[in-house]
Fold this protein.
Amino acid sequence: MLKNMEKFPNDFVWGTSTSSYQIEGAHLADGKGPSIWDTFTQIPGKVANGETGNTAADHYHKFKEDVALMAQMGLKNYHLSIAWSRVQPLGRGDANPKGIQFYSDLIDELIKNGITPWINLYHWDIPTALQLETDGFLNPDIADYFADYAELCFKNFGDRIKNWMTFNEPWVFSILCYGHGVLAPGRVSNTEPYIVGHNILRSHGKAVDVYRRNYQKEQNGKIGIINNCDWREPLSDSVEDKAAAQRSLEFFLGWFADPIYLGDYPDIMKNNVGDRLPKFTEEDKKLIKGSSDFFGINHYSTALAENAEVNKKYEVNVYDNGCLFEDERVVLHADPTWKKTEMGWNIVPEGLNNLLHWIDKRYDHPEIYITENGVATTDEIIEGEINDQTRIDFLKGYFSAAHQAIEEGVNLKGYFVWSFMDNFEWALGYEKRFGLHHIDFETGKRTPKKSAGWFKKVIASNSI
């Protein structure tokens, strides 16, 4: 039996992830200002079943119970996000002492239970006031507002936080929020996603500069950014389809990683997007290049990439994680033998291995953390138990692919499962369950799923 065990390096980091709006609830409690998600969910038709994150899993009031569940499953690392409008309701100016206190208490509770907090500063929930008053990430001034907010967090929590992330999935925020309009603030444009992406990178650069100049030496922490990317395999051996797969990866991941690791946007983006792609100033480039101490990556799926002919009509599904079709010119397909998740995403563990190698090669062997990977499944409570074997099988396959990448020389240092608990899945409401813990959204009751017990063994043995 031991021969079949895949052992991870001794210092490998295992954890779970969540985000503030998806679990906290208490949407206007204790001085919190509304975020664009509080506002967006009030518009009829924007979210499945008219659901909101107003209460969600009520983590704001139940965080001690949740941390106890984390301790019970032997969790050593927990990746969470801070709600900007909870600690700074207007997105600038005065802090909200009760919001600061909540995160301080949560951090203390985690540490008391032997759990290391990893903090992400932005998971798509800009304060509504900042959005309405300044146009949010469409305004270049956002870089200064974000850096000030980041400093507020470094000041209040940095004595205990050793791992910071500035942004989660800027690709999603740019494309699905400003291109396709399916997520808050719900804008549709072929220009705004590139402006937003540009200002996210500038905001990231400024926040990292503040941390490195004023806090890093004393607080002894690391700071980075979290990108997301699905793998792209060419549909055929044709030169065109191979180029399409590479182009898709550069539009997806290169868009945000190239400026940080290579100094500018990919050439293919400059060529295809033209004047709609903003240009970095020399000052921007100085702040952005080299501004990540590690490579955070969220990964969920794989697709086959076909080169799109210019004059041909194609149907595009925004939830397939395609960029702006007119610019990328890639059609995505699935191998009919691939199994799919409840989200309709393809289950292809070797895609993760391929992506890790692509990152390793293109960005010169960075230290990588998988900051999200998980699966939505149909979870039924039968006699008080949830046998989510599908989730266990999914994670087993992806963990194995990650282990293989390490064996092959990729510098992968950690793996965070999405998600610790069931939560509000954005425009899809509460129908899609990603959690290792089941949440009854009517009563707030928490029930560990079979996968939580299985993951506990993985963490304890550091192996699968």
Q: What stands out?
A: The chain is about 40% helix and 15% strand. The chain has one domain: 2-461.
